[in-house]
Write a structure and sequence with these properties.
The complex is a heterodimer of chains A (about 220) and B (about 350).
Chain A lengths: L1 E5 L4 E7 L4 E8 L4 H16 L8 E7 L3 H18 L3 E5 H7 L7 E9 L2 E10 L2 E4 L4 E3 L1 H7 L5 E4 L3 H9 L5 E2 L9 H13 L23
Parallel strand pairs in A: 1-4, 4-5, 6-10, 10-11
Antiparallel strand pairs in A: 1-2, 2-3, 6-7, 7-8, 7-9
Chain B lengths: L2 E6 L4 E8 L3 E9 L1 H5 L6 H23 L8 E7 L3 H18 L3 E5 H7 L14 E6 L4 E8 L2 E7 L5 H11 L6 H9 L23 H11 L25 H26 L4 E5 L6 H10 L4 E2 L11 H11 L3 E2 L15 H4 L2 E2 L6
Parallel strand pairs in B: 1-4, 4-5, 6-9, 9-10
Antiparallel strand pairs in B: 1-2, 2-3, 6-7, 7-8, 11-12
Classes of the chains: A alpha/beta (about 220), B alpha/beta (about 350).
Bound molecules: adenosine-5'-diphosphate (ADP).
The site of adenosine-5'-diphosphate has 21 residues of chain B, from helix 5 and helix 6.
């Protein structure tokens, strides 16, 4: 049984997955209470699925990009659990989890997260066989810049705010947002991605897993 | 035998330790970030948080290995909940929660200052502790005189109204162009200096138990900065200036500054101990590493003075495990919804800390 944890943004999610079925999934918006809410929810997940921590075989975690603090909270708990049971820890890039929720179609997809101060973290994906493959690295940007460079017909998924919905509607490039249910970043999808990696033997050393930060801490004034 | 795994990430040390029965250190692993922060001349919070998440699991594994144990025989996980840097505390607390949940172990949140007090329980002594004792807690963030009447029973007698003692050491060191961290640098420089060369102020001496070190810092600044040509602008003095007057003898300034700090710390602590009829005087926290402070306290105190070994003066997880043990045996537990408390006065731990476990729970 694989436990998946995502606290990369204010939307957080927990899931239990056995390779076929989701035994538990919860996704909610937190008022920045990640530390208070995460472990009790994992405990609840285990209780509802009637399994003990010793039955876990892996922990998947959202690696970023995302809120620095949020990422470290999820990764902290994930490292603790993986250390406790001596099981693999599998990091998955946050925007790949967003893309995984969207049915594949023949166009471009842009997955976004809110990055604070009206900025976005965004990454472009293109269709590749049955899935989405990133076609550019994730970057910090704004709606204006993003829509300016977007190709006609591009779909948007992830944390689209009111400003985003309005700008997408006003655009003349046939840009659109995927439906609300498909735009949610769910740990169930993270669990599937992590499971695949685990089956392929693509496992990292617990200590070596660190968050993906999109920028370096600024140097304070001398 | 009770084994507690302690975890500490409140500031710039990632630490884990295993302590037996609250008093015997089985392992005490500390990954210091001092070199990382030296380039900034102080602790840079985001850099500290990043380093914690990178090493936390390795440090914990190492503490277990060095103690010769596995999680199978650990009885509880104790972790620093505050006070400290929020982003740093979050790493230790969430990692500890993952361990506790993953092994169904009790979780105990510990106050960092209480941890410093318990470094004295890890210090060799002649006989058992007799309460009450008075403890001077002096670190980078705190200068407090605390009356301890029992495990977990604290009364604050005095604290600083501005800078902490360690903070004063750090700021004056920067002013003198001495390397970070400032405390050890000042102490080293002071060895060759004359503590009577400068007559720096001893603020609030003889009255009450409050400290103030900000005036002392300004007095040092005035003594070492080159005289201004022309009109002095009031806001122009910089605590970062390394421009010294040519006639300044750094060793003398360091020794005189250190003497001023030590005088007040010692005078007030001894007076507090006498007024409250304590059996001993304890010194804890990073500044307790200072030899001048240790020597003067021991020389002037009519009561026995206890100080931790140098290895336990700075932040470490053994002291957290020890404090956690004394909570554990009294039945205190925290729930998994425990949050960090970046501001957490030692005095309020009765209201906000662990609560007794319901009968029959872990
Ligand atoms: N030998 C010393 N003399 C004076 N101050 C010292 C000495 N060693 C360390 N310090 C000071 O102790 C502080 C760090 O103590 P620590 O307990 O780690 O603090 P905190 O928990 O507040 O970060 C720093 O301000 C440092 O300069």
């Amino acid at each position: 049984m694989l436990l998946a944890i995502d606290t990369a943004t204010r939307f957080m999610s927990v899931a239990l997955y056995d390779g076929r079925r989701l035994w538990f999934e919860a996704t909610w918006r937190t008022a920045n209470n990640h530390t208070i809410e995460l472990t009790p929810t994992i405990r609840q997940a285990l209780a509802q699925a009637q399994i003990t921590p010793s039955e876990l075989t892996g922990v998947g975690v959202s690696q970023g990009p995302g809120s620095f603090t949020g990422l470290r909270i999820g990764l902290g708990v994930a490292k603790g659990l993986a250390t406790a049971q001596n099981i693999p820890l599998i990091p998955i890039q946050t925007l790949a989890i967003v893309a995984a929720a969207v049915p594949v179609f023949d166009a471009h997809l842009v997955a976004v997260l809110q990055a604070g101060r009206r900025r976005l973290c965004a990454q472009q994906f293109t269709q590749e066989n049955t899935g989405w493959l990133p076609s550019a690295p994730a970057e910090i940007t704004t709606w204006a810049k993003l829509l300016d460079s977007a190709r006609a017909g591009t779909a948007f998924a992830g944390e689209i705010n009111d400003e985003g919905y309005e700008l997408l509607a006003a655009s003349e490039k046939q840009l659109h947002a995927v439906s609300g249910a498909q735009t949610l970043r769910r740990a169930g999808l993270l669990a599937e991605l992590a499971w695949e990696r685990m089956q392929a033997g693509d496992i990292s050393d617990i200590a070596a897993v660190t968050p993906i930060y999109l920028h370096q801490p600024g140097v304070p004034h001398p | 035998m009770t084994l507690i795994l302690g975890i500490e990430t409140s500031c710039d040390e990632t630490a884990a330790a295993v302590v037996e029965d609250g008093e015997r250190i089985r392992s005490n692993v500390i990954a210091s970030q001092v070199d990382l922060h030296a380039q900034y001349g102080g602790v840079f919070p985001e850099v500290a948080s990043r380093a914690h998440i990178e090493v936390i699991s390795t440090v914990t594994e190492q503490a277990l290995t060095e103690a010769g144990v596995t999680l199978d025989v650990i009885d509880a996980v104790a972790v620093t909940r505050g006070p400290g840097l929020s982003g740093s505390l979050l790493v230790g607390v969430n990692f500890a929660k993952g361990l506790a949940l993953g092994r169904d172990l009790p979780l105990i949140g510990v106050n960092h200052l209480e941890g410093h007090v318990y470094s004295l329980w890890l210090t060799e002594r002649g006989g058992p502790v007799q309460f009450p004792v008075v403890c001077l807690i002096v670190s980078g963030g705190h200068s407090e005189i605390v009356l301890i009447t029992g495990h977990g029973d604290y009364t604050m007698l005095g604290s600083t109204i501005d800078d902490a003692a360690g903070e004063a050491f750090d700021k004056v060191a920067r002013l003198l162009g001495l390397p970070y961290p400032g405390g050890p640098s000042i102490e080293r420089a002071a060895r060759d200096g004359d503590p009577a060369a400068y007559d720096f102020p001893r603020a609030m001496r003889g009255e009450g138990y409050q400290f103030s070190f900000s005036g002392l810092k300004t007095a040092v600044l005035r003594a070492v900065q080159p005289p201004h040509k022309g009109k002095r602008q009031p806001k122009q003095e910089s605590m970062h200036s390394t421009q010294l007057r040519p006639d300044v003898n750094v060793a003398d300034v360091a020794a005189s500054f250190q003497a001023a700090v030590v005088d007040v710390l010692v005078e007030k602590t001894i007076r507090a101990a006498q007024e409250h009829n304590t059996t001993e005087i304890w010194i804890a926290g990073g500044v307790s590493a200072n030899q001048a402070l240790r020597q003067q306290m021991t020389a002037l105190s009519p009561l026995p003075v206890c100080v931790p070994p140098l290895s336990l003066c700075g932040d470490n997880a053994a002291m957290i495990a020890s404090a956690g043990y004394f909570r554990f045996v009294r039945g205190y537990r925290d729930d998994l919804d425990m949050d960090v408390r970046p501001m957490w006065p030692l005095m309020s731990i009765h209201d906000t800390m662990t609560r007794p476990a319901a009968p029959g729970t872990a």
